[in-house]
Amino acid sequence: MNFYKSALATAGIAFLAALVMLFNANYEVGAPLLILAFLALSIGFRGYKILKGFAFTMIIFGVVVAALQYPTYFISYNGYKFSKLITPLIQIIMFGMGTEMSLLDFAGVIKTPKAVLIGLTGHFTVMPLLGFSLAKAFNFPPEIAAGVVLIGSMPCGLASNVMSYLANANLALSVTLTAVATVLAPFITPIWMKFLGGQFVQVDALAMMLDIVKVVIIPIGGGLLFNKFFKGKVHWLDKAMPILSMFGIACVIIIIVAAGRNNLIVIGPALIICAFIHNSGGYMFGYWTARLLGLAERDCRTIAIEVGMQNGGLASSLATSMGKPATIGLASAVFSPIMNITGSILASYWHRKPPKDTINSRFDDEMVVPT
């Protein structure tokens, strides 16, 4: 515990020093100190159960600062553009997601059809329309606006399952919603992007459908096969996948932020506000719609988290496939850490208020929070 306290103390000192340097426009010293502060916070948070869920988010903040201060290091090397790594990294993450699933997860639709329908309706109707409305309201440039629609049209990711576990929600329902939404994504996401995103940029729906199959369906299918035949037999890989997923997400964000640095400096604050509104809107719609329709408290919590959280990694990959990681992909780079923050806060709040329903979980407290 003393180690974690020391890390938090280091973070506090580094933050104060960074603020002084940044206030005096000494960015060359202030930025490294700020990066150190976020990394120390990440380490310190691991020592406290209530803060553990924020550890990875602190790493992401440090990554963002590094990308903003030293963009040239993360754009290319000897003519090789790092944006080419985004799709392979997301495929690895999706494979890892597949290893946490099984075909039984899809059978949950039969057990809880009402809850699944509410979750999917919110996820694939409310969130794309809310993204489009916010893009219009904030009057974002066309490619930035298309990126907001894109992140709003995404399926949920593995992070929502972790948040559901922490929130004492219905984890089985969470995994089912994630699995079904992921399978539906190749068909629904391109339609929304063509219909809504197409008002801002040109969208090839068929190409996007094939990209989603390549980036999501095939790797997750491979993960499902791994789960069936090798789960628990290759222990080093079981332990490595969560770490690899975190590393992959951090790399994707740092590449996109570095590439879109100039746009982010100008439009970043508006995108942050937009992300909070979009994310919170999903939580509220999911929770209160489920409550009004008579679902149990655990199911309401699950649907809130599933509707409110999107797969930012997939959005980044699709933006890269469209050749616009620095513009269309910028929203996903901003929304992803925001979703982790709000999801962690909501999960921590609900964790302290256990529902009367019986808790059902498949994961343990050591599971990491990928986005």
CATH-assigned fold name of the largest domain:
Na+/H+ antiporter like fold
CA-based gyration radius: 20 Å
Mean pLDDT: 86
What is the CA–CA distance across the termini?
28 Å
Task: Tell me the total number of β-strands.
Answer: 2
Quick structural gist:
This protein has 371 residues and is mostly helical.
Structure report:
The chain is an all-alpha fold and 371 residues long. It has two domains: 1-78; 83-351, Na+/H+ antiporter like fold, CATH 1.20.1530.20. Helix content is 74%, strand content 1%. The protein is built from 16 helices and two strands. The protein has helices spanning 2-23, 27-45, 55-69, 86-99, 103-106, 108-111, 113-137, 142-152, 158-166, 171-195, 205-230, 235-259, 261-292, 297-308, 312-321, 330-351, and strands at residues 76-77, 80-81. It has a two-stranded antiparallel sheet. Strand 1 and strand 2 form a beta hairpin. Helix 9 runs parallel beside helix 16 and helix 10 (171-195) packs antiparallel against helix 11. The two termini are 28 Å apart. Mean pLDDT is 86; it is low at 359-371.
Helices and strands in order, then pairings?
Blueprint: H1 2-23, H2 27-45, H3 55-69, E1 76-77, E2 80-81, H4 86-99, H5 103-106, H6 108-111, H7 113-137, H8 142-152, H9 158-166, H10 171-195, H11 205-230, H12 235-259, H13 261-292, H14 297-308, H15 312-321, H16 330-351
Antiparallel strand pairs: 1-2
Helix pairs in contact: 1-2, 2-3, 3-12, 4-11, 4-12, 4-15, 7-8, 7-10, 7-13, 7-14, 8-16, 9-10, 9-14, 9-16, 10-11, 10-14, 11-15, 13-14, 13-16, 15-16
